[in-house]
Design goal:
With 90 residues, the chain is an alpha+beta fold. It contains three helices and four strands.
Length: 90
């Protein structure tokens, strides 16, 4: 399953997040897959697309970063797959 992760840097401190990333990497448990990320122009938020089959892996990852980041996690489905799913009802 895919998840859009919206990260808000605590205290608007993107430098602390990038420092840890440089030193420790993403800190993801085995089975959690990083797809891509985009950073807001003002460095307030990061949007990451992640994949996993077990949401507990996301919880472990959030625990690793929770002191520096506030998370919003939204399960998402690609548009093409959604169109296929609802096509019979149109």
């Amino acid at each position: 399953m895919r998840f859009m992760v919206v990260e808000r840097f605590r205290n608007r401190d993107a430098k602390a997040v990038y420092r840890r990333f440089r030193e420790q990497g993403r800190g993801m448990p085995e089975g959690l897959r990083y797809v891509g990320s985009w950073i807001e122009a003002n460095l307030d938020r990061c949007f990451q697309l992640m994949e996993c089959d077990d949401a507990r892996l996301l919880q472990q990852w959030v625990a690793h970063w929770g002191d520096l980041i506030e998370f919003e996690i939204v399960p998402v489905v690609p548009s093409a797959e959604t169109r296929e799913a609802i096509e019979p009802y149109l």
